[in-house]
Write a structure and sequence with these properties.
Helix content: 55-70%
Shape: elongated
Strand content: 15-25%
CATH class of the domain at 153-250: Mainly Beta
Radius of gyration: 26 Å
CATH architecture of the domain at 153-250: Sandwich
Strand order of the largest sheet: 1-2-3-4-5-6
Number of strands: 6
Distance between the termini: 22 Å
CATH topology of the domain at 153-250: lipopolysaccharide transport protein A fold
Oligomer: single chain
């Protein structure tokens, strides 16, 4: 077994390198996002502090997605630096193997992933919701031309009197209970087009949608402008959450509840199940990143080929990211089980790292 003092040393070096990379990414994302929000808010009177606060609330969720690459780059930097300073040479001369170098970093990576899943993720989800509210206050009330339908979120509903409606929203808040940039196409019980309703905002209340700043276009009628309008609906909060809520804005601890409610309402919950499995697999994904980094960065500096090793590590991380995106898209299309979509990339990364390390160490 590796001595405890040396294990703590390797672990501290890995932890310092990872947090340095993650801190650099965090600062870079903050600056880019703040500049972008400042550009969007350039023609309205708003305090720079409010813009900075909005940007800061948006950043944690973005940096959470960058964490695996931070671990990959941090582990590569850690082991390359140890090799450059000949510390790995001395450790090998003392009879230690690569497995003993890597074990402390793997343990730390699993601990980091556990903390991120159970603590950082709920915080980033809550801050993302607050940033959506601030963005709506900053930009949602801005006067502009008629709203245009297109992308965003879509849902079909039927009211108690048999009238149907198709709702499109460019954005959602509070897990779909509040919508922004709403366009609604209504149809009579016979399925004939009736009206098009455009509204700045919509809020789900028991039995109806409350629309604000409304314009109604009817066939053969002049457009009507209303301050508010009630649209009857039979949609429940669970149905709205499934259609408009983004799984990334639901915290880890709330996901089982959302999945249960969706199942009780007879709805699919593929997005929530996938997000839950991804968060469960996150500690082991970080461990896979450590193994991939170790497989390309334990070579001695005097053998040369350092740039090639770095590019190989970055390429391996990129391929793992592509695989995770492909499996996630298959899961969202219900062509792959969410558990398999989340764990297959992890297993691929772990097996690849282990095989390369076994080849390097044991021939």
């Amino acid at each position: 077994m590796i001595p405890l003092t040396l294990a703590r040393y390797f672990a501290s070096r890995f932890l310092a390198a990872t947090f340095t990379v993650f801190g650099g990414v965090f600062v870079l994302v903050v600056l880019v996002d703040y500049i972008e929000l400042t550009r969007r808010a350039s023609d309205i009177n708003v305090s720079p502090l409010i813009v900075a606060q909005t940007s800061l609330f948006r950043v944690p969720q973005a940096t959470e997605r960058m964490l695996p690459f931070s671990v990959l780059v941090g582990a590569m930097a850690c082991y390359l630096n140890l090799s450059r300073r000949l510390e790995l040479v001395v450790a090998r001369a003392a009879g230690m193997s690569a497995w003993q170098f890597v074990a402390p970093a793997v343990v730390i990576a699993i601990l980091i992933g556990s903390v991120v899943t159970t603590a950082y993720n709920p915080l980033s989800a809550a801050l993302r919701e607050r940033s959506k509210r601030l963005e709506a206050e900053l930009f949602g009330e801005r006067p502009s031309g008629p709203l245009q339908s297109g992308g965003g979120f879509w849902v079909r509903q039927r009211s108690a009197d048999g009238r149907q409606a198709i709702i499109n929203a460019t954005g959602s808040r509070e897990q779909g209970a509040r919508l922004d940039g709403v366009t609604i196409f209504t149809y009579d019980p016979g399925g004939q087009f009736d009206e098009r309703i455009e509204a700045r905002k919509a809020a789900l209340e028991p039995g109806h949608w409350r629309l604000e700043q409304v314009r109604i276009y009817g066939s053969g009628k002049a457009p009507r402008d209303l301050d508010s309008y009630l649209l009857s609906t039979t949609l429940t909060s669970e149905q709205v959450q499934e259609s408009f809520a983004t799984p990334e804005t639901v915290s880890f601890w709330q996901l089982p509840t959302y999945i249960s409610k969706a199942e009780q309402a007879g709805l699919g919950a593929a997005g929530y199940r996938l997000q839950y499995q991804l968060l469960l697999a996150q500690p082991f994904l970080l461990a896979a990143m450590v193994l991939l980094a170790a497989s390309v960065s334990l070579r001695f500096f005097r053998f040369g080929g350092v740039p090639k090793m770095v590019l190989s590590g970055v390429g391996a991380g990129f391929l793992l990211y592509i695989l995770s995106k492909v499996t996630a898209d298959l899961s969202k299309a219900e062509l792959m089980h969410p558990g398999a979509a989340a764990w297959v990339p992890v297993l691929f990364g772990v097996v690849t790292g282990l095989v390369v390390l076994l080849y390097q160490e044991d021939g």
